[in-house]
């Protein structure tokens, strides 16, 4: 049996109750062990295991050991994966209202975005997940997504003709195309080689991911365009969650709540440290004036919202919360 097959079988067994009353929740994510996903997952594990007195254990599988985000979503819906941490865009196919978070320049800052997501507005989105067989426990820190590559971006015109790897989804593809780039979706596993070989000129990413995933070895510029502030969230399988007692469910929710601040604090530190490290590596950190970027990108909102269920209503809720 291959290693991948062993991991898959182990994951299925780990998600199900054992012969006694114990339950092992397998928790997957796609990022490295240096990420805010891992720090939050560790806090979740610590609180759940201490509070359950051995009735529940949590096994963490980083770096896509349980598959990519779409695969983990599918596994959680069927109960073969206990929980996972994901960015918001992969959730859009399952809960299309989440596509509102892919609007460019939806928030003004990481702090503002996190504040809104921790409010009743964020909870209203998490409450949409049970209908899809998922339990949305909490939003974790947003990612500040900018552009790393071999070309400096100091103004919108600098993006003209630049091939930039973006996430698959209208909010990313249409935005980058509108800004003059050639939006180029591709599998994340292919991006490093594509940059090396000049297939793409850059990628949209967060500073700490540029360091953690070694893109800092091949890029010459990191331009703080801050086009998307992309939410992340901790999600549990509803079939598994429903097997827990009310007391265990409350413990799981409390553990998630405690992991939120760990995620936010860890992201802030790793982002700041990454910018310093990139400078030390000789990578130019470019800080363009964003007003022209915002104007052009936000002109895409009506077209993007047209295909999002309750898009305008949810945008209104977010903007009202932004103004507080």
From TrEMBL:
Transmembrane segments: none annotated. One of its GO terms (molecular function) is carbohydrate binding. Residues 1-22 form the signal peptide. GO terms for cellular component: outer membrane-bounded periplasmic space. Keywords: Signal. It comes from the Bacteria. One of its GO terms (biological process) is transmembrane transport. The keyword Signal applies. This is C4-dicarboxylate ABC transporter substrate-binding protein. It comes from Aureimonas glaciei.
């Amino acid at each position: 049996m291959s290693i991948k097959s062993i991991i898959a079988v182990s994951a299925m067994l780990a998600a199900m109750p054992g012969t006694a009353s114990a339950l092992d929740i397998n928790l997957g994510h796609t990022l490295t062990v240096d990420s805010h996903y891992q720090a939050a997952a560790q806090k979740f594990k610590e609180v759940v295991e201490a509070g359950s007195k051995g009735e529940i254990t949590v096994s963490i599988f980083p770096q896509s050991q349980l598959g990519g985000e779409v695969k983990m979503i599918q596994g959680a819906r069927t109960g073969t994966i206990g929980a996972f941490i994901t960015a918001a865009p992969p959730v859009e196919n399952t809960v299309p209202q989440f596509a509102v978070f892919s609007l460019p320049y939806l928030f003004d800052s990481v702090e503002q975005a996190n504040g809104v997501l921790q409010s009743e507005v964020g909870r209203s989105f998490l409450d949409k997940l049970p209908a899809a067989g998922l339990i949305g426990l909490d939003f974790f820190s947003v990612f500040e997504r900018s552009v790393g590559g071999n070309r400096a971006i100091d103004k919108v015109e600098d993006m003209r003709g630049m091939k930039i790897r973006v996430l698959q989804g209208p909010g990313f593809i249409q935005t980058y195309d509108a800004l003059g780039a050639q939006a180029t979706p591709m599998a994340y596993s292919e991006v490093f080689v594509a940059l090396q070989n000049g297939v793409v000129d850059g990628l949209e990413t967060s500073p700490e991911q540029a360091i953690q995933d070694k893109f800092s070895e091949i890029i010459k510029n990191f331009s703080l365009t801050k086009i998307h502030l992309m939410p992340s969230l901790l999600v549990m399988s509803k079939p598994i969650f429903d097997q827990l007692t009310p007391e265990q469910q409350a413990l799981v929710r409390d553990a998630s709540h405690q992991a939120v601040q760990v995620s936010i604090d860890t992201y802030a530190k790793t982002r700041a440290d990454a910018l310093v490290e990139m400078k030390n590596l000789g990578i130019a950190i470019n800080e363009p004036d964003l007003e022209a970027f915002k104007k052009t990108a936000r002109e895409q909102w009506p077209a993007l919202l047209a295909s999002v269920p309750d898009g305008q209503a949810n945008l209104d809720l977010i903007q009202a919360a932004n103004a507080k």
